[in-house]
Write a structure and sequence with these properties.
The two termini are 46 Å apart. This protein is mostly helical. It has a domain of 58 residues.
Length: 96
């Protein structure tokens, strides 16, 4: 996000939303817990969700040779990995 000098003010638009009292209460409690206003908390949460959604829809374009190599690696049977096998055979710390 670009920083602004003291004299600059950010253009802001108003967004009105309707929500249940329960939703508002949960959001208010979470905002208070994070030391933020409701608006700050909701904008940050919405921005994070928007970025996640957009990242999930990213398109990566590659040439034919690169795609064939990717498919070859992806479709190949897994190779033996003794370190991974040892890790997965260990008990979880809370099970000890």
């Amino acid at each position: 996000m670009a920083s602004r000098s003291k004299g600059q003010s950010a253009a802001r638009d108003l967004v009105n939303i309707r929500m249940s009292r329960e939703d508002r209460s949960v959001i208010d409690r979470a905002a208070h817990s994070a030391g933020k206003s409701r608006t700050e908390f909701m904008i940050e949460a919405a921005r994070r969700a928007a970025h996640d959604t957009l990242l999930d829809q990213s398109l990566i374009l590659v040439d034919g040779g690169t795609f064939r190599r990717f498919k070859q690696l992806f479709d190949a049977p897994p190779q033996r990995n003794d370190r991974l096998r040892a890790l997965l055979s260990q008990k979880a710390p809370w099970e000890s």
